[in-house]
Amino acid sequence: MSKVKVAINGYGTIGKRVADAVTMQDDMEIIGIAKTRPNYEAFVAHDKGYNVYTLADRVDDMKKAGIPAAGSIDDMIAEADVVVDCTPGGIGEKNKALYEKAGVKAMWQGGEKHELAGCSFNAEANYEEALGRDFVRVVSCNTTGLCRVIYPLDQEYGVKKVRVTLMRRSADPNDVKNGPINAIVPNPIKLPSHHGPDVKSVIPHINITSTAVKLPTTLMHLHTLNIEMEKDCSTEDVKALLAKQPRVRMIGQGIGSTAEIMELGKDMGRPRGDMWENCIWEESVTMYEGELYFFQAIHQESDVIPENVDAIRALTEIETDGTKSIAKTNKAMGL
Amino acid sequence: MSKVKVAINGYGTIGKRVADAVTMQDDMEIIGIAKTRPNYEAFVAHDKGYNVYTLADRVDDMKKAGIPAAGSIDDMIAEADVVVDCTPGGIGEKNKALYEKAGVKAMWQGGEKHELAGCSFNAEANYEEALGRDFVRVVSCNTTGLCRVIYPLDQEYGVKKVRVTLMRRSADPNDVKNGPINAIVPNPIKLPSHHGPDVKSVIPHINITSTAVKLPTTLMHLHTLNIEMEKDCSTEDVKALLAKQPRVRMIGQGIGSTAEIMELGKDMGRPRGDMWENCIWEESVTMYEGELYFFQAIHQESDVIPENVDAIRALTEIETDGTKSIAKTNKAMGL
Amino acid sequence: MSKVKVAINGYGTIGKRVADAVTMQDDMEIIGIAKTRPNYEAFVAHDKGYNVYTLADRVDDMKKAGIPAAGSIDDMIAEADVVVDCTPGGIGEKNKALYEKAGVKAMWQGGEKHELAGCSFNAEANYEEALGRDFVRVVSCNTTGLCRVIYPLDQEYGVKKVRVTLMRRSADPNDVKNGPINAIVPNPIKLPSHHGPDVKSVIPHINITSTAVKLPTTLMHLHTLNIEMEKDCSTEDVKALLAKQPRVRMIGQGIGSTAEIMELGKDMGRPRGDMWENCIWEESVTMYEGELYFFQAIHQESDVIPENVDAIRALTEIETDGTKSIAKTNKAMGL
Amino acid sequence: MSKVKVAINGYGTIGKRVADAVTMQDDMEIIGIAKTRPNYEAFVAHDKGYNVYTLADRVDDMKKAGIPAAGSIDDMIAEADVVVDCTPGGIGEKNKALYEKAGVKAMWQGGEKHELAGCSFNAEANYEEALGRDFVRVVSCNTTGLCRVIYPLDQEYGVKKVRVTLMRRSADPNDVKNGPINAIVPNPIKLPSHHGPDVKSVIPHINITSTAVKLPTTLMHLHTLNIEMEKDCSTEDVKALLAKQPRVRMIGQGIGSTAEIMELGKDMGRPRGDMWENCIWEESVTMYEGELYFFQAIHQESDVIPENVDAIRALTEIETDGTKSIAKTNKAMGL
Ligand SMILES: NC(=O)c1ccc[n+]([C@@H]2O[C@H](COP(=O)([O-])OP(=O)(O)OC[C@H]3O[C@@H](n4cnc5c(N)ncnc54)[C@H](O)[C@@H]3O)[C@@H](O)[C@H]2O)c1
Ligand SMILES: NC(=O)c1ccc[n+]([C@@H]2O[C@H](COP(=O)([O-])OP(=O)(O)OC[C@H]3O[C@@H](n4cnc5c(N)ncnc54)[C@H](O)[C@@H]3O)[C@@H](O)[C@H]2O)c1
Ligand SMILES: NC(=O)c1ccc[n+]([C@@H]2O[C@H](COP(=O)([O-])OP(=O)(O)OC[C@H]3O[C@@H](n4cnc5c(N)ncnc54)[C@H](O)[C@@H]3O)[C@@H](O)[C@H]2O)c1
Ligand SMILES: NC(=O)c1ccc[n+]([C@@H]2O[C@H](COP(=O)([O-])OP(=O)(O)OC[C@H]3O[C@@H](n4cnc5c(N)ncnc54)[C@H](O)[C@@H]3O)[C@@H](O)[C@H]2O)c1
């Protein structure tokens, strides 16, 4: 069987990781990536053997800079079975017409609205919903992290109410433009925030409120969760349930911060030191006065990457069973 | 009537502010401050006219450095009616014997345990409890900030349950030793944390759970609160109640971060730019599905300062009415 | 004699400080300040009693927000003897036509080019040059800091060559937009940088090269200087010379960082905790193999403030002797 | 020929990298690593197949924690041909007696004094000096970075004088204890600093002065260099010379900060995203008024790693030609 042809439109933090993760699979391949400027990321993409496409009017610039651009973004789309749109939030929306015109399946990331794709995706929670669709949105890093724990808890015990505080990194590690340097920024100030409720785009019946802040750190988001459940369960029950999720890592062994989790990712030899799993501090998981509490850290740059791979399988129906796709993706990535 | 003679043992972040706040009152005065090293803070204290005392074996060192130390800490204590102990957490405990021996009243800060003083103090919540006592503990910056909002809400509507996430600055602005530089540190990892429950040392019947993290910022703590109340009330009711508290400032006017609150403190001409009040974002205050949510920022260096002044009045009974003391302190400080 | 009427166009970091410093003088007064948005800074300005002006089309917005705007910027300019333009770099240039049309004297800050005013000003170095002029530019925080030490060294010993590394804070303390959060940014990359040579706009014959970086800190800039001089001199000679400069503070007493200098400013009771002087670590000043080395910290928000006051006197010729103006300004500000 | 048996004493930032780099070589192997606590780093070491040794009295603790410690540090040393001591600065000194008693060759890192080993090592500059010795010190990350550029410039043009400002990261990325969070710390304050002169422990005749600061960043050090040379040369000459050094990477392609260099390391697929080379901004390299200027970034965690591999070869004389060792190490590591 021939491999699914995947194009990456927007080769930044997310795009380059999706490209590499797709390359690790045996049932799909990257036929090109699109980059707007000939910076170091474009050179590395070229060195890795990816065909580098660009905006129609910049093909010459790319060539002059030393990257023999394979052509325009339209050319790239024409070759693809699926386009993974990883352009900055809001830009992806404008690309929809392009994909429709070319009759190509497309996926967006969490920076776009649910309505753009009509289906918001998390591999564990609603793989089936995306089967054979033309368009899908892989939800944001935070929503992905929330779905991965809320969904199994809801399946097992019934989730009555979720209250979450999202402490967000303000800039990715390679971004030197955005601050704050030394402040806490409640964002949004109006409460509750829209972040938590985005979970409903995947699991509509969940009752969830959230508050969110932006922090002077680049490494990971941190969630503090408070969950009321329908059925009785113990701390040990929850620990056991969370520990067996395919994209959850229970954290202990003296790891006391997001910095040490990132160190662990590097020590384990992960590409780019990525930590694709939700990292839950085992010691933090507690049922207290009938409510569940825990801390989880989310590596914003990478937790959505395996979900993108699964979404490609769902759209193209090369695998119709979500559990099998998750297992296949995890195995290929070494997760 | 002669003024109450106050000595400050430990002239750091808290001690120097208590000294200046006491000096602003007309019913008490600073008779001396104790500093262990002749650094710039000692020189400024001396320049301001405070008698600088030190450890018995360092009097000569102080003199040599150019600060004519008025004597040993024992000498200072002998002169005082009340000692405000502002030494680092844990040291204060060791000083208790000193105060008992000298037969002087003493106050500690939040770094010490409740048991040391037997009475934990917040001016709004339990002034009367401290009247005439020998020892009292002014609760920590975080607990003070929590008491100031929980107490009036409880009085008015009955507080059923409080869930709070405490995002703590990891170092004071002048501290260059402590990190993290770029990480989020859940602390403690074991949930729920002890921070919230410290409110019970002041208002025992409150049901409160907390989670806490340490952040790479020096300016302020941020609390995100979720409160369930006994009686019905609206967003507007709560805003009105909070706005009229004597040590709460409702924040708006485009202020979007702890950094801008600190700028406001400077712009208002506050000494050291201090923000003694809880700073609550008015826009954040919301009753949602029967639960109250809001964000408040706490200036860790200064919110306990007016409470220290009130505690001196309570211990010495120069004012037996807490409301009057609060009003007097606020007026003298320009709060 | 009536006071010089001063208007502040652009009431941000610099503008609000110039306003307060002018108010401290007995020979000048603020007749209005211009603010574009009704944020907290505008409210504080109004509370302090300043007439708040705004862009012509925003007068109503200001009024609606609760600040009875005294009128448009044009109205303000019409009342003034001197306009101190403290708008963001590049905006000031566009205002020149306004000032010319109104026939009012005007001053710009370091964000504008030398050519705009034709005269770049530092009180110690070239007060006389600005006497009676229509326009002048008060040089940037970094250039001001450099002129204050290079000028006297040049007068006394002849400066042969200056090499300086400028480590710049990337954002002011109230700015939460700009990063980096965790990186060093050489800026500009092309060497040598334009920063040092800006000293020549004040003292043309100085031979100076500089390298500059932007850092994840908000408090102060730090300069490391290497100076070759014409005449022989000792470490002690230089220390003595620097120590007696009117706007230099020699730093010691255990102060080991920019954070502790800012703490000193607060402890001293300075408005906003400002540190108007160059802060030179006394221990760092060293003649080594015939070259001078030292570290100085520059409080970017405030070091140009006394220079702005002096520049007003120079333009209006209410004082023709620079040394007298400096002394008068310093005394009024408590420097 | 059997492989050289290498033991790593102290498996932290440097130790774990040396272990992995040795494993990449075909002429040496890791026979064990020593770790004091059973934290995540110990588990990863164990998972990677390294024999984990520990302090004699902690062997049982390790076993209990789930890591079957292969024995005590003494046991490990007894098996080794060379011990690479990567314990924290100052501890290494105490281990010398151990190595002498066991009659094993040993290497220390830059945290120890030159005198401890009697020979300070940089592969490019003085490989031959270390041949067959019992002890050697691989110089610090900063000194290594300086030697790599000063040595070839000196060989080619003669270095008359070097002035360098070292802007140091204050904590490694996984270290959440150390600050500052928001300040610049001149360190040492006394000038010139000892950092630059440490180059003389490798190349004694170099005339070099340095100034150093500590910054709130974790990623890399940044050096700004000013070099006077004996012979005439052009900007292009220097660029060409630097570009051909085996452990120098010329940086361009829109990379504007240490953060983007670290991103490049990750993008290139380097283990842990390490950047073993000096990273020199090509655009910064400039001959100006007869003096050379440039910026280089140094990845403190990894630049000394290839030098450690070479030092093992020098001590054991399995390769007597430094150039060949450098080439072999680079090739094996993919540098
Ligand atoms: N970074 C994260 O933490 C994160 C996490 C999860 C989801 N997301 C979402 O992923 C999407 C991408 O975010 P990112 O962080 O990777 O952004 P990014 O800025 O790192 O990368 C975006 C890339 O798109 C390119 N680009 C811009 N305009 C383009 C156009 N018109 N055509 C093609 N390419 C264009 C840019 O040059 C850049 O390389 C967003 O929707 C974002 O919300 C980001
Ligand atoms: N900094 C805050 O944010 C904050 C807020 C609220 C409460 N507190 C509490 O206030 C207390 C003081 O904290 P701080 O932040 O002011 O500490 P600090 O370190 O700033 O100051 C403590 C001072 O005590 C001096 N000292 C140390 N040992 C001493 C001794 N044996 N005798 C006399 N003086 C001694 C130190 O030299 C220093 O000047 C602690 O209990 C702390 O938990 C601190
Ligand atoms: N902040 C510093 O560290 C510093 C130091 C020395 C010199 N400077 C220079 O001082 C000048 C002002 O800088 P700043 O840091 O105070 O900026 P800022 O952004 O803090 O303040 C600028 C103010 O001007 C207002 N403004 C914008 N457009 C305007 C317009 N068209 N008319 C009137 N007001 C307008 C803004 O609302 C803001 O209040 C710049 O030239 C800057 O380079 C700044
Ligand atoms: N981190 C850097 O940036 C860097 C760069 C170049 C050189 N160095 C030098 O390398 C050396 C190691 O530094 P590091 O940063 O890797 O330190 P580190 O703290 O990361 O690691 C040191 C390790 O040694 C272990 N250890 C402590 N005492 C021990 C003992 N008695 N026996 C065995 N192991 C013990 C610790 O548990 C830790 O795992 C120091 O000399 C340092 O100056 C560090």
UniProtKB/TrEMBL annotation, chains A, B, C, D:
The UniProt keywords, alphabetically, are: Cytoplasm, Glycolysis, NAD, NADP, Oxidoreductase
Q: Sorted alphabetically, which SMART domains does this protein's record hold?
A: Gp_dh_N
Q: Name one GO cellular component term.
A: cytoplasm
User: Could you tell me which InterPro entries the record lists for this protein?
Assistant: DapB_N (IPR000846), GlycerAld/Erythrose_P_DH (IPR020831), GlycerAld_3-P_DH_AS (IPR020830), GlycerAld_3-P_DH_cat (IPR020829), GlycerAld_3-P_DH_NAD(P)-bd (IPR020828), Glyceraldehyde-3-P_DH_2_arc (IPR006436), NAD(P)-bd_dom_sf (IPR036291)
Which regions form coiled coils? Answer: none
Task: Give the EC class as a word.
Answer: oxidoreductase
Q: Where is the active site?
A: C141
UniProt GO BP: glycolytic process; lysine biosynthetic process via diaminopimelate
Which GO terms fall under molecular function for this chain's record? 4-hydroxy-tetrahydrodipicolinate reductase; glyceraldehyde-3-phosphate dehydrogenase (NAD+) (phosphorylating) activity; glyceraldehyde-3-phosphate dehydrogenase (NADP+) (phosphorylating) activity; NAD binding; NADP binding
- Catalysed reaction, written as an equation: D-glyceraldehyde 3-phosphate + phosphate + NAD(+) = (2R)-3-phospho-glyceroyl phosphate + NADH + H(+); D-glyceraldehyde 3-phosphate + phosphate + NADP(+) = (2R)-3-phospho-glyceroyl phosphate + NADPH + H(+)
Q: Whom does it interact with, and what assembly results?
A: Homotetramer.
The entry's protein name is: Glyceraldehyde-3-phosphate dehydrogenase
Give the organism the record lists: Methanolobus tindarius DSM 2278
